[in-house]
Write a structure and sequence with these properties.
single chain; mainly beta; Porin; 3 domains; 8-stranded antiparallel beta barrel; 1 helix; 29 strands
Length: 359
């Protein structure tokens, strides 16, 4: 976060040495028109004025804005701001923002209620309530509302925000997190969805291949099914949802490597009995031209014993696809099969069983 912090402050500091002091303007103007500070209608004492309208060719400095403020490069508002601020590069508000900031590169403010939109980053030092949209990064303290960024979102305080980012989200406490790669949080009250990894102290609904939840569960299992595919599977998640990542071999034809990924849910979880529902995708391949795909929905009852062990077995509904020349077949109880010129598609009932150890 530090590089973005210093970049976002660099340009305003060139033109406003008292930038961070909370400021109460003593004068009011009807309009503030200028080119670049101090070449404006309010001159060198521009920071002492509150303006309902400001228009600057390059950079404008003011004490407070209460309506519309626009600048070709940047705005440096020492006190509070209301209404709409538009700039080509940066907008800084030294006190509270209530309204909308739109900048080509960076928006900064002490606290805010409203909307921030920036080409690169939005930075709120304290509380934020509203919507942050940034091409790269959003940073705020206690956050209520929505953070959306092309790379990442950071919420430093307890919040009820929803975070959506292309790469990562980080929060102390949040409502929902959606990221392309990784989410990190203390407490997540809603859904935590990531392309690869979720990390949290408490998260009941994590959705990712790998979920490291402090108050959740992690386990390893050995299993086999009707297609003679044997897997070592890592299950990880929270109280309700968990991720599935399995590695093993398919033995029905020549032994071939197999990879499985999916999502599971604990439907029942008692002292000695569990009932799980899983949706999983299996890929069998020699990493050349032989490929076998299976998409399964399975119900897995299990019995607990010795505190950390479980034995499970249950039925599955499978959709199967493979190239005809690869020598695969529709395994299990065949419900439907379509043999095309090159590919075979099938639907079958299967059975999966194994043993699991909770880590």
């Amino acid at each position: 976060m530090k590089p973005f912090f210093f970049i976002s402050l660099f340009l305003p500091l060139l033109f406003s040495p008292q930038l961070f002091a909370q400021h109460q303007p003593s004068k009011t103007s009807v309009a503030h028109i200028g080119l670049i500070y101090p070449l404006s209608s309010n001159g060198r004492i521009a920071a002492e004025y509150s303006n309902p309208f400001s228009l600057h060719g390059l950079i404008g400095v003011s004490g407070q804005e209460t309506g519309l403020a626009m600048a070709g490069v940047g705005l440096s508002i020492h006190g509070a701001a209301q209404g709409l601020q538009l700039s080509g590069v940066f907008t800084h508000v030294g006190d509270h923002l209530q309204g909308t900031q739109l900048s080509g590169v960076v928006n900064t403010t002490q606290s805010a209620t409203g909307v921030q939109m920036a080409g690169i980053t939005n930075l709120v030092q304290a509380d934020f309530r509203g919507v942050q949209l940034a091409g790269v990064l959003n940073v705020a303290g206690k956050t209520q509302g929505l953070q959306m960024a092309g790379i990442g979102n950071v919420s430093r305080g307890e919040s009820g925000a929803t975070q959506m980012a292309g790469v990562f989200n980080r929060a102390r406490q949040t409502q929902n997190q959606i990221a392309g790669i990784v989410n990190v949080a203390g407490t997540v009250r809603g859904i935590q969805l990531a392309g690869l990894i979720n990390i949290a102290d408490t998260s009941d609904y994590p959705i990712a291949l790998l979920n490291f939840v402090k108050n959740g569960e992690k386990s390893l299992s050995l299993s086999s099914d009707e297609s003679l595919t044997s897997l070592l599977t890592f299950r990880s998640g929270g109280r309700v949802l968990y991720g599935i990542l399995g590695l093993g071999y398919h033995f029905r034809t020549t032994p071939l490597p197999a990879v499985e990924g999916g999502l599971g849910a604990h439907l029942l979880d008692g002292p000695a009995f569990r009932l799980k529902l899983e949706v999983a995708s299996l890929w069998v391949s020699n990493f050349n031209k032989r490929d076998y795909y299976r998409y399964a929905i399975r119900v897995l009852p299990s019995l607990k014993f010795q505190n950390r062990w479980e034995i499970f077995a249950g039925p599955s509904l499978n959709q199967i696809n493979f190239e005809n020349e690869d020598g695969f077949s529709v395994s299990g109880l065949k419900l439907w099969e379509k043999v095309g010129a090159r590919q075979t598609h099938g639907l079958s009932l299967g059975l999966t069983g194994g043993i699991q150890f909770r880590l």
